[in-house]
Amino acid sequence: MDNQELKFLKTLSRQYKNIAAASTEIINLQSILNLPKGTEHFLTDIHGEYEQFNHVLKNGSGSVRRKIDEEFGNTISNKDKKSLATLIYYPEAKVELAEKDEDNLEDWYKISLHRLVQMLKRVSSKYTRSKVRKALPKDFAYVIEELITEKAEIQNKEAYYNEIIHTIIRIGRAPQFIVELSYLIQRLVIDHLHIVGDIYDRGPGPHIIMDTLCDYHSVDVQWGNHDIGWMGAAAGNWLCITSVIRLAARYGNLSVLEEGYGINLVPLATFVLETYSDTDCSVFNIKYNTDYNTKDLSLDTKIHKAMAILQFKLEGQFVMRHPEFHMEDRLLLDKIDFTKKTVLVDGREYAMKDVDFPTVNPANPYELSEEEAKLMVRLQQAFARCEKLQRHVKFLYSKGGMYKIYNGNLLYHGCVPMNEDGSFMKVEVFGKEYCGKALYDVLEHYARRGYYAKDAAERAEAQDIIWYIWSGPGSPVYGKSKMTTFERYFIEAEETHKEQKNFYYKLYEKEETVHKILEEFGLDAEDAHIVNGHVPVEQIHGESPIKCGGKLLVIDGGFSKAYHKKTGIAGYTLVCNSRGMRLVAHEPFESTEAAIKNESDILSDTIEVETFHHRKLVADTDIGVDIKENIHYLEDLLAAYTDGSIVEEG
Length: 650
Prior knowledge:
Elements: H1 3-13, H2 19-32, E1 40-43, H3 50-59, H4 63-72, H5 78-89, H6 91-101, H7 105-124, H8 129-135, H9 141-148, H10 157-170, H11 174-189, E2 192-195, H12 206-214, E3 219-222, H13 225-235, H14 238-250, H15 254-260, H16 266-275, H17 297-321, E4 336-337, E5 342-345, E6 348-351, H18 370-384, H19 387-399, E7 400-401, E8 403-406, E9 409-412, E10 427-429, E11 432-434, H20 436-452, H21 456-471, H22 485-490, H23 504-507, H24 511-520, E12 530-532, E13 546-547, E14 552-554, H25 564-567, E15 572-576, E16 580-586, H26 592-597, E17 604-611, H27 622-643
Parallel strand pairs: 1-2, 2-3, 3-7, 9-12, 12-14
Antiparallel strand pairs: 1-15, 4-5, 5-6, 8-9, 10-11, 13-14, 15-16, 16-17
Helix pairs in contact: 1-27, 2-27, 4-5, 5-6, 7-11, 13-14, 13-19, 13-20, 13-21, 14-17, 16-17, 20-21
């Protein structure tokens, strides 16, 4: 044993002070390895649809109902199973309804508590008692542990458990106990949650989703391009701020910024009312939902246009700073002929629907007016000082990244950029070319520097990379040749609207492509899978989310309402437990109110992607690798105690 190893073992001995302590931990860890692996839940492209997100999270994409079926079989009716499932999803609301509607409330409490305890026993059975104990709510920890733990020493166990439940009801604690049991079941059904990008934009509640994720017991996030935009805005990048506000205005969701985050948009409203008061804004329609207050329509339309013009100006400055990114096709303001009302795109002249741009100087179209520059300073300060937004974005940085390797699977939002011949596409970043995994790594490095760097110049330079990640032709999370925002606003001709997908999307059905990507990220191509989001799968046109024989799974099926007509469904989710992987296709979610009142769950179709040859155990997971390493070190410590190299305490 060398000095370094002995030093490490002495440090370890402070925690395990003698043979008995080290032996006990080895036995404990070795037994954990033989438990079934926990259930993983994968969601992507949520786009602010918080009601559907919360429901899918609560029901574990059907996992709760499956557990109910397994536990009760044919012993209770389908109606009772629906009621129990809804109680687990929305316990406070269901208890409140029961207190109003039930003729014999005590019986309802008794039946509900017994069924919830049965469910809790089932969902906790795959975990150690220690892990379950850590998840128990503080106020009811002792009672719950008594109810779910078999006690061989008690002869009449049924009477013992019945008396516990009877007392809970008698002293008026049944409602609170039902609520805590329900949330505990939700928590234990899903061991770990993966969000494969795009929490933000389009829908009305990304801030609500982020609050939920911040409190979730175990979660990781793979950044989507829309998340990156908000991260850049929180970092203070002007371009990202204009894009975030523009998209919020476009989808009638400025309330997310004003009410959800408390960001002051009064300076923006003042600016547009003065600058765009007599400007034609008809091109900048608002795609609002039923909750939108139409009295704001005129103002929001002006904000929409003002932010678009600011974005095009700032994007032009970005493109000219970085010729290495080859985004010259985004320089369009200087291609406008204001007299003819036309614009040159790819060398061809097109009529423009709108050239009424009060802040654009044709002689220097990318320069911000004095008022625009002052406005951007105010908006930057508002985003920087927003405590809630900063907390959410720090969560994305701490729990997220450009990709994730987890339990032998590769998770990323967009694509691995490729050339037509199947080689990895090279992208120049500050004078050096990167591709494949190295491209992901360098872009993530600069995305973090763009938020955390102390040096202002370094921070600004890295924030330019954040914008490139949002919309650049070599960006893994964008994955298209260009973002044709300008053309879609101003040009009728649809050929200018096309955003050519990266060749990845033509090649990912090929086994050699998927194997090449998995090997690039250091994974065994025979056993691993790629879980992919970003591009909605159009099931309505017969497209399948299962690519390359199940090796690659595209789980974006249009969670956002904006995509429902395009995809024909309301999103895919993926569930991976100890026995296999299944893909779940969801129908649109009516409302939380309907789910509670009518006990209507989301209708979902399940596709079995893979059934494992043997049940996967903790030993087969990343946690298992860590546990095996800990066992190895503890056995070395045990040997050191035994041969006297280290002296026991106690």
